[in-house]
Structure formats: structure tokens, C-alpha cells
Amino acid sequence: MDNGSTTVVGRLALGITLLAFGLGTTGVIHGVAASDAVSVAHYVGGVALFLVGLLAFRGGDGVSGTGFAALGALWFTWAVGGHSSADAAGLFLLLFALVALTLTLAGGDGLGQLMHGLLFLAMLVLAVAAFADSSSLAKAGGWIAAVSGAVAWYAATAALAHWPTTLPGRAAGRGVTATG
Fold first, then answer.
1. Does position 116 have pLDDT exceeding 90, yes or no?
2. What is the model's pTM?
3. DSSP secondary structure string for all residues of 9-63
4. What is the DSSP code (8-state) at residue 166?
């Protein structure tokens, strides 16, 4: 599997996991909660994402390997570990946010940075929600996670379908016109 393929598979796995987790957290779908995303988080976000990270390392892509393996380990831990208190859940989400912040600052393409930046923001808001016992903040964090998942899904799909991944630039100054 080449580096481009591992990135696409990793982003699909992360996107599906974030969409399931985020939409479950928002409560927008009647009868669906974040806890319903546990199987997806365990196998897709945890096991599959971790394995994609290992394949990326094997292919020489240390940044994607680090990102996917770390996120896979965190999703796996979230899925199998029960938190003894809201504060323990908040601490876990805060640590998750720090990993996402590291991935945001690591650079990469614009969609990847946007995806990781939104993941950071989602986990930070969810951590504060857990510490403050705020269902409103939890819903907001869920929406941010869902948007991050949609960006991850789009980034993977765009790579396969040859859709645009950047916004068209504009001319560099006042009065500059494009030639063609």
C-alpha cells in the first residue's frame, strides 16, 4: 500500500468514526447516542486506523504513521475503557485534543490541517463539557466532531474521485489580471 493509499484509507476510517461519534454526541438522530459509536470507534477508528498507521510507517510516511497510529490507539482506548468519572473522561478528551493539536501543527495539506484542527477543537470542547457537566457544550463538541469527520471523508473521497482539494487562488495584487 503506497503512502497516498494509506492516507485515503486513514482519512476514511477517521471520517466514519468522527461522523458516528459526533452525530451520536449531538443527539440529532433520535435514539442514537455517542455510546452507539463504540463498535465503530473500536474497530474502524481503533484497530483499522492503528493498522493503517503501521502501514504508513512501513511505507516511509512518518507523519501519517504517527497520526493514524496515535489516533487509532486513542479511539481504541475510548471504545474499550469506561471512565470512572466525568473528570476522568474530561482528562482523556483533553489528552486526545493535545494529540490532535500536534497533528494540526505538524503541517501537511490544507484539508488534513483543517481536519485535525477541527478534531482538536471538538475534543477540547468535549473535555470542557465533561469537566463542566454541560450537555450544551457536549452537543457543540459533537457538531464540531461531525464536521471534522465530514472534512476527513471529503478529503479521502476527493483523492479517489479527483475532486478539488484546494480553493482557487486569486491574483496577487491590486490591478493584476490573469492572462490566458
1. yes
2. 0.88
3. HHHHHHHHHHHHHHHHHHT-STT--GGGGHHHIIIIIIIIHHHHHHHHHHTT-HH
4. S
